[in-house]
Amino acid sequence: MALGSNSLVIRRIKKVKKGGKHGGAWKIALADFALAMMALFMVLWILSVASPEQRASIEGYFNDPLGQSTAGFSASPIDLGGSPAKTTQQRIDLQQPEEGSADRREKKQTTDAESKSDEEIKEINEAVQEELKKMNLVVSQQENLRIEITPQGVRITLLEEPDKPMFERGSARMLPDVENMLLSLAPVFTGVNNPISITGHTDSTVFNNVNRLDNWDLSAMRANAARRIVEEGGVQRNRVAQVIGLADTIPYNRFDLDSPENRRISITLLTDEAYKAILDRNRLNFGSPVEQADLDLEPNQIF
Question: Quick one: CA dihedral 287, 288, 293, 299, positive or negative?
Fold first, then answer.
């Protein structure tokens, strides 16, 4: 057809509908949902790790984002440590708490308690050594006597020698030499006013007699026999914190479980901290969890 003629020209345009199954609107909705979930989890994480002061700072930021927060910190909500801090606000760092935080105070209190306990152990040991000097007793010359410093206090141990038994075989009857040794150590126990813990130990040899007693019974009976001797030597009854039989569970000689050294009596002069720990542990494990006054019982429930 020649150009410039008066003939009618028709243009057909194909219209394509956008969206539908192959549109991108759902991607935007999903991105918004993911962003909202991320913000939610971020808020939950901050609430779980932030200190009360930091939570107050965040609250102040949202109350007035452009000004000073109500908690006295800056307008910047938090500093996660990824960039240089713009303010002097506290950092959220559980491993390295700032000065004055609760973790630092608890750590300082624990350190102070440990230092106090170490100082008390030192004082107990000095008092024991002083009493031994008065008695002209040299521990290094006594093959069956050991004085050791432990976290609980100063421990004095009487070990059985191969040719000098401490008790009659299979019995809690103490032989005269050991009894005299405990009585001679009475000034050591009476010269220090700390509470006392007494433990009895046996070797791993299986012991049974006609009365069906075993190493547990034997170690407990021997520890109680030692308690009676030290009380005869002048130790007041209320100073004895505990008397325990441990059988062969804690050998002195771990390489020879049948060694005579494992048959022994240990008497520990406890620190105040160790004594309180024993009392707290015993109350927790063996005390009544509920006081009678706390029970709301009717008479018909009792009788």
Answer: negative
Virtual torsion, Cα 265, 267, 273, 274, nearest 10 deg: 10
Contacts of 221 (CB under 8 A, 6+ apart): 172, 200, 245
Cα–Cα distances in angstroms (integers) from residue 268 to residues 151, 192, 264, in the given order: 11, 11, 13
At 57 the three-state DSSP class reads helix
Q: Which of 267, 64, 247 is nearest to 178 (CA)?
A: 267
pLDDT in tens, 45-85: 887 887 777 777 777 777 765 554 444 444 454 554 444 44
Domain 118-285 fold: 60s Ribosomal Protein L30; Chain: A; (3.30.1330)
Provide the pLDDT for residue 205: 86
- For CATH 3.30.1330.60, list the domain ranges present in the chain: 118-285
Amino acid identity of residue 156, one-letter, is I
Which pTM does this prediction carry?
0.58
